[in-house]
Structures are given as C-alpha cells and as structure tokens.
Amino acid sequence: MAAEDEFPASPVPAAGAIVFRDGAILLVKRGAEPNAGRWSLPGGLVEVGETVESAVIRETMEETHIRVRPLRVFDVAAFIRVETGRVRWHYVLIDMLCEYQGGEPFPDTDAANARFIPLRELGEYDVTESAREIVGRAASERLVVHEGETDPGKEHKSAGPRGTRTAATSSEGDSK
After folding, report:
1. What sign results for the dihedral spanned by CA atoms 143, 176, 96, 122?
2. Which helix or strand (DSSP H or E) is residue 17 part of?
3. Cβ distance 167 to 175 under 8 Å?
4. How many folded domains does the chain comprise?
5. 5 lies in a domain?
6. Is 60 part of any domain?
7. pLDDT digits over 4-42, tens only?
8. Is-contact 112 37, C-beta < 8 A?
9. Residue 97 counted as domain residue
C-alpha cells in the first residue's frame, strides 16, 4: 500500500531539524520508506495550515520526544526519487537549525530509533549522504561562529538558507 506522500501529484513540503547537544547531533533511524533503516535528521511533512517552524517542533517531538526551538532555515533541497519511470517520492526539504530545549531521545511514530550521536562517531552509522552533508556543514559553521564570538553560547542568525541543492536519485538514492 502506498503512503499518502508516495507517487505525489506535486512536490511535498517537509521540514527537518538540525539539533546539536554537547558535540552530538540528533538523528533518527527511519522505520519506513524512503530510507527505511538509515539514519537521518528528524522531521517530516508540513501539514496544511502549519508553518515550517511548527512542523519542525511537532515532528521532532513526535519522532524523538526532544523539545526544540527553531532558529533559522539552514538549507532547502529537493529530494526526488524516480522508479520505473515514475516519480515515487518528491519532497522539498526545509532543514532548520534548532536549539535543544530538553528531553531525552526516545523513538516514536515512524522512527525505529533516535539518539544524539557524537559527531566523531557518525562514520559508524548508516547516515544518508544528504544528512551527513548537512550535519557537516552545520557543525563547521557552528565552530567558526563560536571561535569568532566572545560569548560562545550566543546563537548565530542569518537572513536565510545557506544554500540550496537538488538530490534527484534512482531507487538507490537517499534523502535527509
């Protein structure tokens, strides 16, 4: 049976959370397609009438039981997977840098697992390429910002996304 966002008539907006805590990143192991069994950023579909910020808060809580405060859009990307000549998945991914507010990771809804993974251990996990790239860029930016500020706890805010990218994939591709 196809999920409601599978074989869409138009692109589906989705929001993801980039959440750091003590040198670790919050990731979920996907329990459903696309990318079942792989680790990625927590997130999911933006519901009708919902802002991206609200979707990030809701999806992060639903998948991980972690409370976050969205700070800013970090990245916007298209994830498109074509199978047998048809678009099976087409998401517009809006990843937001978030401040950790509290809670301990506990998987729920469509997440098979959830945890804060130390950045130095990311290579030991089957993390999707796009999530690995986003986490790497966000971690690098965090280090640069904190080195240049007198108050390392101060959050860096910008006017908009750092970049946009497109991930058009075959059935072996990845998202978030």
Report:
1. negative
2. strand 12-21
3. yes
4. 1
5. no
6. yes
7. 789 999 999 999 999 999 999 999 999 999 999 999 999
8. yes
9. yes
Does 24 fall in a domain? yes
Q: Which residues pair with 16 in a beta bridge?
A: 43, 95
> Cα dihedral angle (109, 115, 121, 125), rounded to 10 degrees?
-20
Beta strands 86-102 and 12-21 are parallel
Q: What is the reported pLDDT for 164? A: 46
Closest to 40 measured CA to CA, from 77, 72, 8, 71: 77
- Quote the tokens at residue 43: 């997130």
Note if the bond before 34 is cis, omega within 30 degrees.
yes
Query: Half-sphere exposure (CA, 13 Å, Cβ side) for 92?
Result: 7
Q: Which domain holds residue 164?
A: 12-169
Indicate which CATH number applies to the domain containing 62: 3.90.79.10
Are 111 and 28 in contact by the 8 Å Cβ rule? The answer is yes
Take residue 162 and report the two structure tokens written for it: 């750092």
Q: Percent of the chain at pLDDT above 90?
A: 76
